[in-house]
Specification:
- The protein is an all-alpha fold and 238 residues long.
- The protein is built from eleven helices and no strands.
């Protein structure tokens, strides 16, 4: 058999079909290695080739492969479920419009997949007892997807949970990131010219000022700007 690599998997997907490529990766004797290869292929397709449909195909298949393999590989079940968690996080992240990622077009079906993946990521973080910071990030990712789906009340709750877990984890920048996104939800929810929007915008600016004093703060502030560019504009345009 030809050595299993991400490049070979992509070649099979493009010269034959995606189902053949997914079966090709699933034939790995070592399920941990197979899950890793699914992940590597997904990441390469997204970041290097900007091929979102194929990246999502490998990511979703990889998550399901890891979860299914965990049922019959007790010794490495936790590792496989952790691999599935990482894949579901990336599925949610790669289908979030708020990044405004150049070269990536996200459709309605992709967004539905992303919301579902964010829910799965949070469930796995809880089941695997990953700890406060991973739980904060899982709640944040779910909130981001709920924001994109216009589930604004649910998004506020998710960002509040993300802030609580980040605070317990003693990661002040991520706590402020979550706090800021809860404010972003308020900006999006308010009418464009309303006092509520101006109040929320002013609060977000104060949050940004605090964030800029912390490591990674500037990058986090950029996330607010990208999200507002996408979601506040779409709300004001109806």
């Amino acid at each position: 058999m030809i050595a299993l690599t991400k490049d070979e998997a992509i070649r099979v997907a493009r010269e034959q079909d995606t189902f053949a490529a997914l079966a090709y990766l699933s034939r790995q004797a070592d399920p941990i290695a197979a899950a890793k290869l699914f992940s590597e292929t997904m990441l390469h397709l997204y970041w290097q080739e900007k091929d979102l449909p194929l990246a999502l195909a490998f990511g979703r298949a990889g998550a399901q492969f890891a979860l299914t393999a965990a049922e019959t590989n007790e010794a490495v079940a936790s590792d496989l479920r952790s691999s599935a968690k990482a894949l579901t996080y990336n599925l949610a992240s790669f289908t979030w419009r708020g990044w405004d990622e150049p070269g990536i077009e996200i459709g309605a079906a992709d967004m539905l997949m992303g919301l579902d993946a964010a829910k799965a990521n949070l469930r796995l973080a809880l089941e695997l007892k990953k700890g406060d910071l991973p739980l904060s990030r899982a709640h944040w990712m779910l909130g981001a997807q709920q924001l994109a789906a216009k589930q604004l009340a649910a998004a506020r709750d998710s960002f509040a949970a993300a802030e609580r877990y980040a605070t317990v984890a003693n990661t002040p920048a991520e706590a402020l990131l979550a706090q800021g996104f809860a404010i972003v939800v308020r900006v999006v929810a308010a009418d464009k010219a309303s006092a509520d929007r101006q109040t929320a915008t002013d609060e977000l600016e104060r949050c940004k000022q605090r964030l800029r004093q912390l490591p990674d703060g500037d990058a986090f502030c950029g996330q607010f700007d990208s999200a507002l560019k996408v979601f506040a504009a779409s709300e004001s345009s109806g």
